[in-house]
Amino acid sequence: RPGTRFDRRMPSSPFPLEQGVVREHGYSEVAAAVEAVELAAPALLPRMRAEFADLAHAAPQEAENLIAPGAGRWTHLALDGLDSADGWDIFPATTARARFPALAEAREMVTAAEEALEALLPGIRRQTKKEKLVYKTVHKEEYLVEVPTSLKVPSDWALLSSTKQHKRYRPAEVAEGMRSLARARERRAVAANEAWAQFLRAVGTHYAPLAAAVRSLAALDALLSLAAVAATEGYVRPNVPSQSEHAMLRLEGAIHPVLAPLLGNRFVPNDFELGAPPARRCLIVTGPNMGGKSTAARSLAMCALMSQAGSFVPAASASLSALDALYTRMGASDNIMLGRSTFLEELNEAGAALSGATCRSLVILDELGRGTSTYDGAAIAYATLSYLAERTRCLTVFATHYPDVVRSLVKERPADVATSRMDYVQEAGEAGEGGKTVPRVTLLYRMVPGIADRSFGVSVAR
């Protein structure tokens, strides 16, 4: 619900209910969600039985029992008291009187103490000769009497704060009433905690069916989300080849599922083919800065991940093997709190791929080695790619600005390594300092076979 304040201990699942640590706001969210599903049950249940007839595990009897019309098991909790810091008004008055008499009595004591304080106002108005005087609350200090600084007040009025124009007092009788109110509020807080614990114990007797039903509804929600993706234009059902010795993938017109809708027709799709002969297992991508290498790699990663999840993928056609892992080393980030530099984070992520990948894994490395010197970075990139191509023999996509490394690997392992570059159009530019001409480059964001000789960093910077 918009505007709802959440307790920091609000659970993301019903399991804390069994442990007795769930707070009022967390339970209220569960109750509200179940109530919404219950209202939709007359239309939902027939669709569930029809659409998921062949997926009995996705909609067990617990889900139907939960949302069956008239079940009403989980909607006892009032949802109009969520702004209370203590949770004392989470139960409606009728529920409190019927099930929690101690809480109802404590509430009445608080109301009586507040009414007693209000009853003191007429006398204070007569003393100050201010007919419209009301209590003020300043910095959580309640029931203050604010009067002009020139006004004389009885000696038993305690001065609590002041400004240039006003002074704020608390008369002796108000102070006594505040003490009574504080005792009543404390009693109400104790009663509210005990009522909530008692309520949780009662609901906890239904914990097992509630947990099973929530899991079932979560599975249905995931299936409906996958169905919505499958109905989206531009998505296709991936073909998953039968298990073979090595993994493979073939994507035509692959796009990024998040970025492409934002850019519309301006997003350039790309093709990928790895693993299936005559394709190689390792693809090295070069090209200008901002030429689209990282975006193309991310598009491939998203398609692979969505296929693994059983989803349609954003491509014209797709064929992807079942993978045992997907390792990525993307972007540049550090971890200051743990004392890890950008370069160390690169090495940690690359090390995870080197130690964990198998021949059925997909590894995507984006500019590995850029966190150090060119010489050291090229050496690290060469060693990493050699190991993946020779030892691990996994599917690998590597984006880099080291053309010499690419040429060496292609020469040494032509049967394992393929190359692509991000296409561009180069035009004559203006002369810069020293008479050198900086070319103008138009980026096309399309992968084509070959190796890019230059990165055009100065052109991009200009």
Produce a short descriptive summary.
Residues 361-377 form the DNA mismatch repair proteins mutS family domain. With 462 residues, the protein is α/β, with parallel strands linked by helices. 43% of the residues lie in helices and 18% in strands.
Description:
The protein is an alpha/beta fold. The chain has 15 helices and 15 strands. It is elongated. 29% of the residues are buried. Mean pLDDT is 81; it is low at 1-15. Its main location: nucleus.
CATH fold topology of the largest domain? Rossmann fold
Multimeric organization = single chain
Distance between the termini: 49 Å
| CATH homologous superfamily label of the largest domain | P-loop containing nucleotide triphosphate hydrolases
Q: What is the overall shape?
A: elongated
Average residue-wise pLDDT: 81
Main sheet overview: 6 strands, mixed
- Helix count equals 15
- The secondary-structure class comes to alpha/beta
GO molecular function, one term: ATP binding
Pfam family, one: MutS_IV
Domain DNA mismatch repair proteins mutS family: 361-377
GO biological process, one term: mitotic recombination
